[in-house]
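Example 3.2
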Amino acid sequence: MARVVERAFKKQNITISTGAPVENVEAGETSVKLSYGDTSTEVDYLLIAGGRAPDVEGLGLEEAKVELEEDGKIRVDEYQRTSNPKVYAIGDLVGAKALAHKASEEGVVAVEHAAGVETHPVDQNLVCGATFCHPQVAGVGLTEVAATEAGHDVRVGKQKLGGVGGATVYDDKDGLVKLVVDSGYGEILGAHIVGNRACDMIAELVATMALEGGYQELARIIHPHPTISEAIPEAARAVDKWAIHA
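Structure, written as tokens:
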């Protein structure tokens, strides 16, 4: 999937350099000079994406007897309840994923549990990732490598977006749908999409996995034509090597 994104970026004249520390930064009036790896350059702007960290200072957590994890995030149970049963925590303050849609659903669970309504915990394995670059990148569940390392007998289905009718209509030919499945019963272990609509398309895969549907069922779900979403059942068919538009 990363190679698909890299090829698309190159078409946009974006240079990707990994494992190359940025050094010797000199900010001028209208430009920034810097070096990365063996290359020196001058650019309009330099953006540093430093990541995120839990902002728990000033919340009075110690006084409220709310315990923290080793990484500084708040310790919660499956219903978002902290070590103080009157206090709940959600979002970037808890768990591994710092995503708005994950926080929103955790909030629903926390409110329902606090109100005594029957609810169920957020399945963190079904929280999809969404990256809004161009093309978009979205994924849920395990990668092929992670699934293999977890002991699954892995099979893979891939479908290039350029093979379906909607690709020409919507100028979305550079993307790919990839399914990672277990050969035993066809369980979908992970799904990954690159494309202009990837962050919308991934919801179908999340729903299929949540409802315990296999790739076999996904392969027979009729999608409207011509759409980009037709690549999803084609990827499922590709697992058994009968994709029509491969």
